[in-house]
Design goal:
The complex is a heterodimer. By secondary structure, chain A is α/β, with parallel strands linked by helices. In chain A, about 30% of the residues lie in helices and about 25% in strands. In chain A, helix 7 (about 215-225) links the parallel strand 7 and strand 8 (about 230-235). In chain A, helix 2 (about 35-50) packs across helix 6. Chain B has 2 helices and 14 strands, in the order αβββββββαβββββββ. In chain B, the strands form 2 sheets. A 12-stranded antiparallel barrel of chain B has the order 1-2-3-4-5-6-7-8-9-12-13-14. In chain B, strands 10-11 form a two-stranded antiparallel ribbon. The longest helix of chain B has 13 residues, at about 10-20. Residues about 5-10 and about 25-30 of chain B have low confidence and may be disordered. The chains are: A alpha/beta, B mainly beta. At the A-B interface, helix 1, helix 6, helix 7 and strand 9 of A face strand 6, strand 7, strand 8, strand 11 and strand 14 of B.
Chain lengths: ~290, ~250
């Protein structure tokens, strides 16, 4: 009886724990990860020292940014559609919130070749868990630099701040968290809106195999975001959209942009009447 | 750093009242045939604790026949917070037999003031079976984050604003292996996603090791080591935190 219980329980736990696995996996990360979040953050911070945070200037207080997650390049069909959409005059930039590629260098090369010129279509990238598989962080850093930074959008009357975080290891880490608090302290007051991008989604409002930040960390982040009037936190990772509103903060989890997915979509983040709004756009309905 | 006790919420006042009603002073009037006090001190650090922290917990456990109830509170001292009272728990359990299989069904309530303005409330239900060397515990919890009434007034939230956020279902589990090192010394190691005063998401397991020394029939000393990591099921493990605690269980009656 006890052996049967052991088998059932072990199978149950393993099934539960491994339902988050998809294809293209780097199992070595179960045991040891060559780059931890604190090391990645220090590299990002070093990059930021020599590359000032970008400011986009727009001609109107109303503007739009496209946001995507989980493109998992490999395939480029949906990514190319996104870039075509981003070229339209109503869009000021696009942001990719992690799991951009599979982690393999060949896929990073595909991404680098497919990205438009920043001067034509501004874009902002940050890593998710897949991007750091197969030593992918080294390639991301070589090609694109920092994964922890912010950029701002200056309108005729206001400034909005967009904070890009590295949550590829399932935690912001001590150093990145300190940096975030510092940004809030020094920048938030002078900005109209504050929007955060972070790959790993926070909440489990439906059963899912996705990992989230530890509850211990959320117990710090939720009050921090409320205190600093964060308008929106846009996340990916789960591949299934979810909208959670808590206080003045909207926590938005996006669908994946993955090729072949019927629900593949991106978010149109529109700032109008001084406030951020959002609309999901299914990429398969675009030409 | 000055610390303050948060005791101004309605749910906490009700919980304290239940605490007092469940465990009236005086042996003659007690509803429990056996009462124990479990107390521990803990130190550790993690990604969000801003250095080392110290915790102190006291838990009162009553048992009569197959029924048991416990209530406990946690005080925390760290650079990350200026409020000392950080959790309150209430659990009731009853032993059953499903055929020949002895199990314990446990209901729990866990309340945490995670900041001056926010609370986290958990309700859970678990079933447990302990065999000779293995223990199995599995259940579900539901979690609610909420703003306090004072925060709602301070932020001047409109009626349309959501002042609470609900995570409906999370699986709780604990798989343990235990073995005696000697007649008085027992060792237990567990893979679990919860501990006395926190419940992680089901995809964030941690390792917990426990050493218990039975001084005599009334007194038990124990030490526990907890190792937390992030990102395991992201398959990019990252150290999150470590804690060590030492405690005593005293059977009062």
């Amino acid at each position: 009886m006890e052996n049967r219980l052991k088998t059932i329980f072990g199978t149950f736990v393993l099934t539960l724990l491994l339902t988050g696995c998809n294809n293209v996996l780097d199992f070595s990360g179960f045991i040891y990860s060559p780059d931890r979040i604190d090391e990645r953050f220090l590299q990002s911070a070093a990059w930021n020292q020599t590359h000032p945070f970008k400011m986009l200037t727009v001609n109107s207080d109303t503007y739009q940014i496209l946001v995507v997650g989980d493109s998992h390049i490999g395939g480029l069909v949906n990514f190319d559609k996104l870039v075509s959409e981003a070229r339209k005059p109503e869009n000021s930039a696009f942001v990719m919130v992690g799991d951009i590629v599979t982690g393999q260098k060949t896929d990073y090369d595909k991404l680098k070749n497919a990205l438009p010129d920043f001067s034509e279509v501004p874009y902002f990238l940050m890593v998710g868990n897949h991007d750091v598989y197969f030593n992918g962080w080294k390639t991301f850093y070589d090609y694109f630099g920092s994964s922890t930074y912010y950029f701002s959008v200056q309108t005729p009357t206001s400034k909005d701040i967009y904070i890009c975080l590295d949550s590829g290891s399932g935690t912001l880490g001590e150093k990145q968290l300190a940096w975030l608090k510092n940004v809030f302290e020094n920048e938030r007051q002078s900005c109209r809106n504050c929007i955060i991008f972070s790959h790993v989604n926070f909440f489990r409002d439906h059963h899912t195999g996705s990992t989230n930040p530890l509850e211990t960390e959320l117990d710090v982040l939720l009050p921090l975001f409320a205190k600093n009037r964060v308008n929106m936190v846009i996340m990916g990772h789960d591949h299934t959209r979810a909208i959670d509103k808590f206080g003045l903060t909207t926590y938005l989890t996006m669908d994946a942009l993955l090729d072949g997915l019927p629900t593949a979509s991106f978010v149109k983040l529109k700032i109008s009447d001084g406030k951020p709004g959002y609309e999901f756009q299914n990429i398969n309905s675009l030409n | 750093m000055k610390y303050k006790l948060i005791v101004n919420s309605k749910s906490l006042k009700i919980s304290i009242l239940l605490f007092i009603l469940c465990f009236p002073f005086g042996k003659q009037s007690s509803v429990f045939s056996q009462i124990s006090l479990n107390s521990y001190v803990e130190t550790g650090s993690n990604v969000v604790s801003l250095g080392a922290y110290g915790n102190f917990s006291a838990e009162l456990i009553g048992r009569t026949g197959t029924f048991s109830a416990s209530t406990g509170a946690l005080l925390s001292f760290s650079n990350a917070t200026d409020q000392a009272f950080s959790a309150y728990s209430l659990q009731v359990a009853n032993d059953f037999k499903f055929g020949k299989l002895p199990v314990t069904i446990n209901a729990l309530f866990l309340w945490k003031p995670i900041s001056n303005e926010m609370r986290e409330t958990n309700f859970g239900l678990m079933i447990e079976h302990r065999a000779k060397h293995f223990g199995y515990k599995v259940g579900l919890n539901t979690r609610i984050y909420s703003f306090t009434q004072a925060a709602i007034r301070q932020y001047n939230f409109a009626d349309s604003v959501h002042t609470s956020l609900w995570e409906p279902v999370n699986v709780m589990y604990k798989l343990s292996y235990f073995t005696p090192f000697s007649p008085k010394l027992n060792f237990e190691v567990s893979i679990t996603n919860y501990d006395r005063y926190f419940i992680q998401q089901e995809t964030n397991p941690m390792v917990l090791a426990n050493l218990t020394y039975n001084q005599n029939s009334r007194l038990q000393f124990y030490s526990e080591l907890g190792y937390m990591q992030a990102g395991l099921l992201n398959m990019h493990v990252n150290y999150f935190g470590l804690y060590l605690r030492g405690g005593v269980i005293w059977k009062i009656d």
